[in-house]
Amino acid sequence: MKSLPTLFIGITLMIAFSFTGLIVMALIQFGSLEPVAMEEGEPLYPQAIAGMAQMGREDYIRLGCMYCHSNQVRRKGFGSDFERGWGDRQTVARDYILQNRVLLGTMRTGPDLTNVGQRLSSEDWHYLHLYDPQITSKGSLMPPFSYLFENRKIDGEPSPYALKFPPGYKKTPKEGYEIVPTTRAEALVAFLLSLKLNYELPESRFSE
């Protein structure tokens, strides 16, 4: 019984040291990082997303996209990220400092999306991919998100935002109808297009 106070103190100290190592040291290491310009007069990077892209990011989280897609380019020698064209440099801590929740991902059932806005810059491509991934990526394991689109009757002129299906696609809307993205789909695509690793940082430059 006399050893209980000593045991309690030991456990308390262990928790305190663990907290210091995990939280305080991380703040010391990363808390001073700020956006930086590579040359005088150039924009600061990374930059925060806003507007529709920020709305889309929140839906990206709600839909659980990060459970199948990562958002980190590993350095050379740690996987084939560069060979797959997922980025021209590795991501580093500074890339994430403006994010209130870092979406590194848990696995790669689908491709990494760190630089998808630069790799796949077509808005139409992303809409088709969300509506039915088999249109753009035959054999994809990604489920369709057709509920993010509206099948509606054409009133007057067709919408310029209506999906443009490839020839031979069997699930086109019936005559007189069109499929258009909802605000949720527009926001999600805006977020995906904002994902670009097209800037250098002092600690991570483009691969030669």
Secondary structure elements and pairings:
Layout: H1 4-30, H2 51-62, H3 116-119, H4 123-131, H5 133-136, E1 149-153, E2 177-181, H6 183-194
Antiparallel strand pairs: 1-2
Helix pairs in contact: 2-6, 4-6
Task: Please give a structural write-up.
- With 208 residues, the chain is mainly alpha-helical.
- The chain has two domains: 3-32; 50-194, Cytochrome c-like domain (Cytochrome Bc1 Complex, Chain D, domain 2, Orthogonal Bundle).
- Helices cover 33% and strands 5% of the residues.
- It contains six helices and two strands, in the order H-H-H-H-H-E-E-H.
- It has a two-stranded antiparallel ribbon with strand order 1-2.
- Helix 2 (51-62) packs across helix 6 (183-194) and helix 4 crosses helix 6 (183-194).
- The longest helix has 27 residues, at 4-30.
- The radius of gyration is 23 Å and the shape is elongated.
- The chain starts with a helix and ends in a 14-residue tail after the last helix.
The low-confidence parts are none
The largest sheet has its strands arranged as: 1-2
N-to-C series of helices and strands: HHHHHEEH
Count of β-strands: 2
What spatial form do the alpha-carbon principal axes imply? elongated
Query: N- to C-terminal separation?
Result: 66 Å
Q: What count of structural domains? A: 2
Residue share in β-strands? under 5%
What is the number of helices?
6
Going by CATH, what is the homologous superfamily of the largest domain? Cytochrome c-like domain
Sheet/helix structural class: mainly alpha
Fraction of residues in H or I helices: 25-40%
CATH topology of the largest domain: Cytochrome Bc1 Complex, Chain D, domain 2
What top-tier CATH class of the largest domain fits best? Answer: Mainly Alpha
Average of per-residue pLDDT values = 90
Q: Major sheet: size, sense and barrel closure?
A: 2 strands, antiparallel
Rg (C-alpha, Å): 23 Å
